[in-house]
């Protein structure tokens, strides 16, 4: 209640007095001292424990702080890594977008160039069509004018002649009658003179038998001389024709002939021939072997070998044969199997004449037959499979090639060797297959055709076409990769299409966009002319 209660103090004082009065007071004091020391030691121990706990807590705090600092540093590094990654992603995205924009710009430029090319082509075709129409209209108008003029002239001349004839008819009649009378008189006098002379001659011959014998002998000798000269002339003409005349089946030959040879090409050296032809390495090596074999056969007088060239169109079979023929040093002649068909019944006879003409070559002759499958195909056994003329032509060929020949070497070229007659294949000594060019050959051909058609110099010794520097060897390598399956002829047409596109666009520069447009079109239409 807020009042001091002395009762407890009194109880304490009474207890102290009892302790002091007790005989164990000293022990009680010592016990109290020990208890006090024990409490102090307990307090010190608790203090040490607290100090130890505080130290442990400080160590734990230091560890926690170090871990937190490590986590903070790791988090900062992670944040920096994430930031750098995000920055890189943003930069990559920007770079990709930049490339896409560049691609869009390039595609747009290519599209514009393609559209311009197509527009130029359309304008060129329209102008050519209009020009042709104008030329046709001019020719038509000129023809109509000439017809009208000729009709008017002819009518005027006819009217003038009719008028003149009507005016002079009496004069012409009198002149005609006088002329006929004079002719009749002259004819009668000539007949009378002739019979008088014949009568006198007959009487003289009858009287003199020696003159009669002389006359008969002279007439006999004259007739014999006339007929003998005619026969001799025919024989000499045949000999000269066989030696000098070129058979109609021969399209090209190196032999001299009195007929004009419009298709005869100028001679070229062996090195220049190999510079202008691109062949697979093994095929080129076999070409050299065959050339050496022909030369050695001609020099040693041994029989020639017959060859077969086969492969897809445009792979160089004809060029190979002409190269082989020209480089061999022999005479050569070129014919086409398709030329026999139009000759009909005369075909076998002309083929026989051709082989006879070839046999007369003193140096030996290489006979190249292109499109041999046109008349050397199978079908002799079947009825109706071959015409009688084609069967006879095949028989003539087999007759002339049935034995070894030291004068004529035959080279056949065909796209489909499987259709040739077995007897023809039996006469072949070596076959050459011409596959489509591989990548290396296509690249070499492209470089050759580009130098030939695009970098060709004009009359003023400067290039006709200016080629974009971007159309370098790397571009040609890409074109060679994309033109897999094309033949040499198709690659030549591709480069000529580049040239035609430049001329058709009205400029003198071949850009990369224009070249890509033409290339894409040729890849879509590989067989277009």
Automatic annotation (TrEMBL):
<keyword id="KW-0472">Membrane</keyword>
<dbReference type="GO" id="GO:0042645">
    <property type="term" value="C:mitochondrial nucleoid"/>
</dbReference>
<keyword id="KW-0547">Nucleotide-binding</keyword>
<dbReference type="GO" id="GO:0016887">
    <property type="term" value="F:ATP hydrolysis activity"/>
</dbReference>
<keyword id="KW-0496">Mitochondrion</keyword>
<protein>
    <submittedName>
        <fullName>ATPase family AAA domain-containing protein 3</fullName>
    </submittedName>
</protein>
<keyword id="KW-0175">Coiled coil</keyword>
<comment type="similarity">
    <text>Belongs to the AAA ATPase family.</text>
</comment>
<dbReference type="InterPro" id="IPR003959">
    <property type="entry name" value="ATPase_AAA_core"/>
</dbReference>
<dbReference type="InterPro" id="IPR021911">
    <property type="entry name" value="ATAD3_N"/>
</dbReference>
<keyword id="KW-0067">ATP-binding</keyword>
<feature type="domain" description="AAA+ ATPase">
    <location>
        <begin position="303"/>
        <end position="438"/>
    </location>
</feature>
<dbReference type="InterPro" id="IPR003960">
    <property type="entry name" value="ATPase_AAA_CS"/>
</dbReference>
<dbReference type="GO" id="GO:0008270">
    <property type="term" value="F:zinc ion binding"/>
</dbReference>
<keyword id="KW-0999">Mitochondrion inner membrane</keyword>
<dbReference type="GO" id="GO:0005524">
    <property type="term" value="F:ATP binding"/>
</dbReference>
<keyword id="KW-1135">Mitochondrion nucleoid</keyword>
<dbReference type="Pfam" id="PF00004">
    <property type="entry name" value="AAA"/>
</dbReference>
<dbReference type="Pfam" id="PF12037">
    <property type="entry name" value="ATAD3_N"/>
</dbReference>
<dbReference type="InterPro" id="IPR003593">
    <property type="entry name" value="AAA+_ATPase"/>
</dbReference>
<dbReference type="GO" id="GO:0005743">
    <property type="term" value="C:mitochondrial inner membrane"/>
</dbReference>
<dbReference type="InterPro" id="IPR027417">
    <property type="entry name" value="P-loop_NTPase"/>
</dbReference>
<dbReference type="GO" id="GO:0007005">
    <property type="term" value="P:mitochondrion organization"/>
</dbReference>
